[in-house]
Structures are given as C-alpha cells and as structure tokens.
Amino acid sequence: MWLTQPLYERSTRIFLGVLLLAMSLVTLLHLVVPADHPLHVSAYTVNLLGKYLSYALLAVAVDLVWGYLGILSLGHGAFFALGGYAMGMYLMRQIGDRGVYGHPELPDFMVFLNWDALPWYWLGFDSFWFAALMVLLVPGLLAFAFGYLAFRSRVTGVYLSIMTQALTFALMLAFFRNEMGFGGNNGLTDFRDMLGFDLRTDTTRLVLFLVTGLALAIGYLICRAIVTSKLGRVCVACRDAEARTRFLGYRVERVQLSVFVVSAMLAGVAGALYVPQVGIINPGEFSPLFSIEIVIWVALGGRATLYGAVIGALLVNYAKTWFTGVMPDAWLFALGAMFVLVTVLLPRGIAGLMHNLNERRRRVKDKPQDDQQELPV
Amino acid sequence: MNFFKQLVDRERVFDFMVPQQSPVDVRHGPILYLEDVSVSFDGFRAINKLNLTIDDGELRCIIGPNGAGKTTMMDIITGKTRPDEGSVWFGSRHNLLQMNEPDIASLGIGRKFQKPTVFEALTVFQNLELARATNKSILPTLTERMTGEIQDRIDEVLLLIGLKNLHRQPAGILSHGQKQWLEIGMLLMQKPRLLLVDEPVAGMTEQEMERTAELLTGLAGQQSVVVVEHDMGFVRSIARKVTVLHQGSVLAEGSMDQVSSDPRVIEVYLGEEA
Ligand SMILES: Nc1ncnc2c1ncn2[C@@H]1O[C@H](COP(=O)(O)OP(=O)(O)OP(=O)(O)O)[C@@H](O)[C@H]1O
Ligand SMILES: [Mg+2]
User: Fold this and answer.
1) How would you classify residue B5: left for phi > 0, otherwise alpha for psi between -120 and 50, otherwise beta?
2) ipTM score here?
3) What are residue B208's phi and psi, to 5 degrees?
4) Are B158 and B186 in contact (CB under 8 A)?
C-alpha cells in the first residue's frame, strides 16, 4: 500500500525510531524514576512536551505545502485554531452542569450573555466522534473553499501568502466577537474531562502526550507517503515550473488543492490535540503572528525534509519556553536573531546542516551512495 | 438530456486516454488548423491574421526573425495565451480555444520550450517519469508504482537522448544542450500526436545537432512535428516544408529553396544573415 511505502526508507525509520524512543524514555522517566530524582520528568514537563509535539505536527503540515508545493501559507494557524475550537466545543459540552452558573447545557459564557439555547452550530458537539469529525472537516472545508478560489485563479507567491494572512486575521476578528458564540475574547476554557477522563490528572496528561506523539508519527508517515510518491514529485514540479507541469497534462490547481486540504486537516488535528493539553483555546491562535512563527520553525529546521520541520518546531518552542522564563521581553528579538542567523549561515536549515555532515562522513568513508531516491531541495 | 450524457462521457474518455488512441479526428485532412488568429499585447499585434495548416504526420519548420511571433503562436496552440480572434482546431473535432493547458496536453500536443524548462530539483529519470503518457489525475498519480514496463520505457528514452549515465543526477546540473535533450526526451515520453519544438538545437554542438535532426525526422510520419529554429543549416537539413513568419503572419511557405529565393523573405530575414 502506498501509505506504508515510506517505511522502507531509512530516514523515515530513523525518524520514527527516534520519536518512539523519546516517547518511551519520557514515559519511563516520568513513571518509574522517583519524583525527587534529578532525572525525573515531571507531569508539567510531560504536558509541555505534548504541546511541543502538537506544534511539530503543525510544522510538518506547513512544510508539506511550503517545502514541496512552494505555497507559503501564512495562515496555517487558522486551520490549527479551527481544529482546536472544534475540540474545545466538545470539551465545553463535557463540563455539563459543573460550570459556575450550573446550567445543564449552556456553557458559562452563553449564560452570561443571557442566551437561552445552544446555537445550532453547537449541536452534536457533545459527541466525541462528531467533534473528531469536525476537527478534520472544518479546516478541510475551509481550505477547500479558499484553495479552490485561489488556485483556480492561479494566485501564487506573495499574493497567496498575503491572502492566507488576511484569512487568519479575518477569522481572528470574527472569533473575538461575543455574538459569534465561541466565547469571544476569553475563548473556551475551564475544561474538565475528555471521554470521561479528568484532564487535570497526571495520567491523562501522559496519555495525551503519547497520543500526540502517535498522531505526529502518523501525520509524518502520511506526508512522507505523499512526497515520496509520484504525486510528491509532481508537487515539486509545480513548485519549480508550474507552466511546464501544466503542459505535461497535470492539473496543477487540483494538485495544489488536494495537498493543501490534507495539510489543513493535519493542522486541525494538531490544534485538537493542543487544546486539551493547554486547557484553553482563544482567538489568539488565529493571530497572523502565530502563523508567521510556524513558518519560522520550518525555515529554521529546514524546508522540504519534514523531519526538519519537527526539529525546528521543537527547538524554537523549547527556546521560547526558556526565554519567556528568563527574559520574556527578549523573546521576539531572539527569534528574529535566530531567523536571520539561520537564513544567512544555514540556508537549508538545521536539516541541511545535518545532511551536509552526513554527506561528508559518507565521503570520508568512501562508501557508494545509498539507493534511496531523495528529493533534493 | 442525451446530449449532456454524451458530454460527460466524452469528458471521461479524456481522463483515461492514452495519446496513441487519441480521439483526434484527422480523416478530413489537417491535424492542426489555425484560421485568422490575432493577438495583441498592450496594443502591439504579436500575431496578425495568422493562417496555418499542418498535415497529419508532417514535419514543418517555422522560421522568422526575432519577435516574429513564433513562440506566441505555440502559446496559443497550447492554451497558454488566448487569441483575441480567430480559431484553432486540432483535427476536425477539437476546438483548442475552449480547452486549458492540461486538457490540450492530454489530448496529445506536446511542447518543448524555447528556454529549456526541466524540473531542476528532480533527477533526469524522474523528469521522464513525470512526462510519461498516463492517467494524470490525483489518485492514480499518488498510487502509481514503478513497474518494469515503465522502467524499460524510460531506459529506452534515456538511451535515445544519451543521458543514461546521468539518470540519477538532478536535472539542474545538466548543460544547456543536455537540458534540451532531456526536454525532447520528455516529449517522447508523452507520445504526443503533435510536437511543438521551439528552438531545439540552441546551445548544441554540431554532433548533437545531427542527432537531433535524425530524431525529429524519425518521428515525423507517425507524429506531426512543428519545429521553430533559427539555425538555417539545421532547418535545411530537416526541412521539407518551411513557413516564414513575419510580424505575426505568414510571409511565405514552401520548400527551403523556394522560400530562400523569395525576394520578400530575403529582404526581411535571410537578407540580414547572408
Ligand atoms: N506576454 C507578452 N506580453 C507582451 N508582449 C509579448 C508577450 N509575449 C510576446 N510578446 C511580444 O510579441 C512579439 C512576438 O514574440 P515571440 O516570443 O512570439 O517572438 P519569436 O518569434 O518567438 O521570437 P524569438 O525568435 O526571439 O524567439 C515580441 O515582440 C514580444 O515582445
Ligand atoms: Mg521564440
């Protein structure tokens, strides 16, 4: 099957192996090592790592469209946030009558707004499966509508990037409004449990971390299966010579549209896993700045490798956590400096550096090139 | 009602169509037919009431000074540029002005660009793989596996264009002449009914030129070939019928000798060179 195809590939095996190892290690250090031991991984850290992993999945989704298809989306935060809101709505409805106002059905903010019934678009979200479906469907449909219009009119390059920024900005403004029925400014929060498990227990956090890792592995595999297929090579063809690709008989706009939709759905899943771990979703996730930050993770990690995106997301977010702890005001400067340094010194990002080192080692050993057909950037 | 059904059916045929069994209808004569085609860019008439007919299996050379509109003509045929007026027919059934680039390509019109355009990040092999005539919609492309048959076909073309030992190199490292060859190879993989070849020998050595000439003349017969070229020696070596384009319309048409003795042609074009 085409989905398992990347499993025969060295880089994918290494990636999945490292991910699995890291997840087991964290689990072990969290569960087995006593809390006062220096190697113990606290529930707080597990939770933080789970959040990073959902960012990593988001970065993979962005790399799929940017690295391989050449579509610089500066609005992927919107798909992430929509997935997050879908999950948040489910979690809100799980609160039931345990809210501050004790209303059996309405979330607190609706009671506060004097609403007397759930708006129609909140119906169904008491079911996890419905919510899970919406996590995929809502970002997917938005990406489809947006992409259909944009790609059909052959909007590309900077114009497309600006349009994606506008999209996420417009959604942010909309979600800020109380009348939209998504909690306005404050968003959705005070979640209690998910599928019957209390979200505030350490075990649930560990499980969420592991599930996010699993989602990252699957998302990575899906993307890798796409980019190593012939469709992936067509993507690169569209990226580098769109007109030429058309004259070969490929419908470029359909290629762009389908990959864009897949990417948006992955971003939605990432958002849905993020929300129960951070315990809140608000319009801030729609902020254009956040979408730009995602692109910076990918650029730092290295475009068109997928694992580079993961490395970038983890490193930058670790740095962010560290900086905001030590000197919060300096974070944006540090991010900017990192970005400039990497673009100047490592134009192909950290993944590019790793690739070069690998090549050099291989040349020293004077071994013949191995057989995998890697797509060069 | 029936009519709509037919339309839908016909659409479906295109998708799975392989160019050899192309539905192009050439029973009534020419494979390509341009009538009174005009196009202007910001008021400048690049193509002016152009009439051109290419017969099935013909090898036609098109010459003309810089800016005569040769490339623009190919843009019109392949759906890249829409003419302001006129009609363009492929066989007697397909009105090309109502189709987009991928449709025209899968109908069996292949094109080599003036500036060689290959996918530089992909290997030589992968470039040929993408060009291969097959169902090019999303799902079949996603799930297609490399079979021995495909491999053989690509190897065959690699041998023909002399890039066999470079097949795992990215196309970006090829020389200008090699890129030209690769693009010709991609055309061969497409197995089109009609090949539009824009300046195929630019940047090639004498020897390479000879091989290109051999290749193109070898194709004519089963496939129709339209070659735009500035190199007169090359044109003379392959041409049977030559069309001279000037200021967007046909100035003269005939054998190379006929054309090159035409005083108007000498004046606008050959005169400068001789
Ligand atoms: N997209 C465009 N916009 C404006 N002008 C154009 C465009 N395309 C072509 N032209 C003009 O139309 C004229 C014909 O151009 P075309 O490229 O078809 O010439 P050509 O015969 O292929 O010349 P060459 O031998 O130099 O390749 C030129 O004067 C060119 O500047
Ligand atoms: Mg030209």
Assistant:
1) alpha
2) 0.89
3) -60, -40
4) no
**Chain B residues contacting A via beta carbons under 8 Å:** 78, 80, 100-102, 105-106, 110-111, 113, 117-123, 126, 129-131, 133, 136-138, 141-144, 170, 186, 190
Nearest to A91 by CA among A285, A280, A282, A268: A280
Distance spanning both ends of chain A, measured CA to CA: 26
List the domain range (segments joined by +) for residue A199.
5-369
A138 near A50, Cβ under 8 Å? no
A211: region left, alpha or beta (phi > 0 left; psi from -120 to 50 alpha): alpha
DSSP conformational letter for B269: I
Residue with CA closest to ligand 1 atom 9: B72
CA–CA separation, B215 and B197 (whole Å): 12
Q: At what angle do helices A307-326 and A331-345 cross, to 10 degrees?
A: 150
Closest CA to B55 of B229, B183, B223, B200: B223
Q: Would you call B170 and A376 a contact, using CB atoms and an 8 Å cutoff?
A: yes
Residue of B nearest to A259 (CA): B138
Are B161 and B184 in contact, with CB atoms under 8 Å apart? yes
Task: List, chain by chain if needed, residues with CB within 6 Å of any ligand 1 atom.
Answer: B 41, 46, 64, 66-72, 114
Q: Helix A288-301 crosses helix A76-95 at what angle (to 10 degrees)?
A: 120
Asked whether residue A375 is domain-assigned, the answer is no
Q: Which amino acid is at A348?
A: R
Is A144 inside a domain boundary? yes
Structure token pair of residue B89: 């027919």
Domain count, chain A: 1
- What 3-state class would DSSP assign to A214? helix
For A238-249, b/e burial (b = at least 16 CB within 10 A) is bbbbbebbbbbb
The answer to whether residue A374 sits within a structural domain is no
> Ligand 1: which residue has its CA nearest to atom 26?
B66
Q: What is the pLDDT along chain A (377 residues), one digit of tens a residue?
A: 778 889 989 999 999 999 999 999 999 999 999 989 999 999 999 999 999 999 999 999 999 999 999 999 999 999 999 999 999 999 999 998 898 898 988 999 999 999 999 999 999 999 999 999 999 999 999 999 999 999 999 998 999 999 999 999 999 999 999 999 999 999 999 999 999 999 999 999 999 999 999 999 999 999 999 999 999 999 999 999 999 999 999 999 999 999 999 999 999 999 999 999 999 999 999 999 999 999 999 999 999 999 999 999 999 999 999 998 888 888 888 888 888 888 888 888 989 888 888 888 877 765 444 444 445 44
Q: Strand ranges (DSSP E) for chain B?
A: 32-41, 44-54, 59-63, 85-90, 94-95, 109-112, 194-198, 224-228, 241-246, 249-254
Strands B241-246 and B59-63: parallel
Identify whether A329 is part of a domain.
yes
Domain containing residue A235: CATH number: 1.10.3470
